[in-house]
Amino acid sequence: MNFNNVNASALANIYFDGKVISHSLTDNSGAKITLGLIHPGDYHFNTESSEKMEITSGSCDVILDGEDINKTYNEGEYFEVPGDSGFSISVKEGICQYVCTFLV
Predict the structure, then answer these.
(1) Domains, the chain
(2) pTM for the complete prediction?
(3) By C-alpha distance, which of 79, 93, 19 is closest to 50?
(4) 27: helix, strand or coil
């Protein structure tokens, strides 16, 4: 996946003692995108706006807030999270890499 005509933040977003790290991009339209990686572990994220999480490498298990279904996502797959919500994500082994697009 390539990105053209974007501005990048040099400072990383670091969560969970460095086990989840991302970098922020903004495209010409003002849309926000983050590129990140998740080390093995279990994490919970809250969302303000809706998001599309595309898995670019590895795999993860995800449970959206308010649901009981644990679904596995692999490279090339994605899930969407509603705004003002959240999700739990678990990486069992290796590193899961992702692209998060904040939806309007």
Answers:
(1) 6-102 (2.60.120.10)
(2) 0.92
(3) 79
(4) strand
Q: Which are the contacts of 92, defined by CB distance < 8 A and separation ≥ 6?
A: 40, 59, 61
Tokens of 14: 């670091």
Both tokens assigned to 16 = 């969970």
Q: Report the alpha-carbon angle 5-78-30, nearest 5.
A: 25
Residues 67-93 have pLDDT tens digits of 999 999 999 999 999 999 999 999 999
C-beta of residue 25 within 8 angstroms of C-beta of residue 33: yes
Give the C-alpha separation, 86 to 84, whole Å. 7
State the average pLDDT for the chain.
95
Q: Which residue has the tokens 């990383």?
A: 12
**Neighbouring C-beta atoms of residue 90, cutoff 10 Å:** 18
Q: What is the largest CA-CA distance in the chain?
A: 40
